[in-house]
What we know:
This protein is of the alpha/beta class. It contains 14 helices and 13 strands. It has a seven-stranded parallel beta sheet, sandwiched between helices. Strands 10-9-8-11-12-13 form a six-stranded parallel beta sheet, sandwiched between helices.
Amino acid sequence: MSKKVAISGYYGADNFGDEAILETLVQRLKKAEADITVFSTNPDKTSKIHQVKSIKSFDIRKIIKTISKSDILISGGGSLLQDATSVKSLFYYLFVIFIAQFYKKDVIIFAQGIGPISNKFGEFITKRLLKKCRWVSVRDDKSLFLLRGWGVKTELVCDPLYDLEVSGSHPENRVGVQLRSFKTLSEKLLITLANRIAIDFSDKEIEIYSLQDSNDLEVCKHFESLLLSVNPNLKTNVIFGKTPKEIIKLMANLEYMIAMRFHAILIALKYGIKTLAINYDYKVETLANDAKIPALSMNVTENYGFMFNRLKNLDHRAILDWVNKKNFNWEVFDLLVK
């Protein structure tokens, strides 16, 4: 008899990384013939794209009813249990976990990044709930050390998108730039980056990727205007309004990628694309260090000419060799959902 699985996460908000993880997760669960319901801010869209049942994330009555009739709650992936974004979101995801544990359901914390949690009550509740989960998996050392310090049994896993199958790159003289709005992203950085791209890649088409239009699109359009102010003859194109599958397919045509978001960097590496990271977050720094690719800081102290030379001198084959050695360990997960 198939398991009934409820999935809680930041789904339905058109965030590229979260939607791509959900696709990977759903495909794995379908192999186990699970009956899947996803909590989403846009249930109709989630249901249509992923071919699953879906209910509104904040319809508490339906959330409770769905969990009570499920066998398993999966919380994640992404960084759900933190209050840097919002203390309200932290307590929402904790509430969902609490309801599952109240009904004595198995809870899987799936490939999450945990913290920071500055709210003391939030930290206290997080510790208590995680200690009662059936399986806790995190995607970075920082989260692993935090939870082990709390006495939570935890497994370190790589990001599920390392298992994404891609057909190989087809470079077409294009450079990808992926930006997101963020508090430490300064006009100085954008101007410096635009000037360097205009110098090094004036003969290439520049594709500027918005991976979550509500957050990325404005800064992407602004960056395009900066590029054209430096060199009106540049060929530029802002990519927006695309599904994760469409974005991944477009990225296959890139020769270079300059990116902020973790999953934009990861997908580029999956194709063996020479990539320069913009280090706005610890997870990006960790990925750049592991992959041995250059990374720009947010304070614009680097020599951009030197960093772009490092980018150009990256070895396509070395990138592929590194990334192909990374595999998500599905063993425990598969045992729990079958």
